[in-house]
Amino acid sequence: MKKLSLLVLVLVIAAFVYFKPKEDKKNKEIFLSFVHIGDIHGHLLPRENLRFGEDKFSQGGLARLFTIVNHLRNRDKDMVLINTGDTIQGSAEALFTRGEALVEVLNAFGINYYAPGNWDWVYGKERFKELFIGEKALAHWNPLMANLYDAQTGALLTSPYQIQTIKGVKVGFIGFTSERGPMAVGDSVVEGLRFTNGDEEFKKYVTELRPQVDILVVLSELGLAKNIQLAKETAGVNFIFSSDMHEETHKEVVLENGTVLFEEGQDGTRAGELNILVKNSKLLGYRFKMHTVDEKIPANSDIEELVAKVRAPFVDVQKAKSFVNPFSKRHLQGPIDQIVGKTQVDLHRSNFSAFEMP
Q: At residue 5, does pLDDT exceed 70?
């Protein structure tokens, strides 16, 4: 009798395991998140906001920016961090290390995809390759460029796109660098490379990827106006993360064909957060938020220490003099935090176009 009862129990458990309701993945709503940074221009530390008609306040700083990135990644471990270029130029630390100071700090951010900007070519083709191309690259940022070719062979320098499955959702990422690279930094610096304006490549790769993916994302340093033009001419892109002209989309730009665009200003003073819902391989909706990186955001101590380490030689009286400008070949004359003079007006170039320059 006991054996019979045991057999019945085993059969009941087996039946429950076999016939229990299975998770309906097909009808499940899936949450995906993206964070966008761009046009950091070598800014490791916070700087003062000096725009016309606005209060002065401390903004930016990579340690504060990381606090936002880290918080959002802790909420969603599959979050995708996108960097749209002009990263390794604009500060003494960037200049005298030919970009390495920024790479060392930003490697800690866990950047998933990168579209280089025009100023990221400033130290030359070979240095760019050292920093970004191949398994031995110093930066672990996965560059994507659909519009940059070897001038002799016609081969693309990097992959034009990548398809990543996130929580069961197929997401396509297409990258574009700025065609203004040669114009901004000089033809000799990018000798052997051929940049295009992206017109043909945008149409080609959007058409190729759209049937293969559930969500299609473009990361582009072609500028907001150009990206709007491209998206209007070729429908099918869900989201475009844009950089180049330091514009700020406090509210996303939505085109009639459904493409949505974002741009996050300059110098690491803004970060864009995009959350989307997908169901049955279709986009249900999205929410965008632009985060202001200011004194209200606590600095991450680990990144603060890393920034201090990178900057230490630059603020040391003797070590600073060992740095050589890669262009002029002149030595740095002293620590970069030394005050050598003052102006009676604030000198900056961060006003919006409707305001006069100082």
A: no
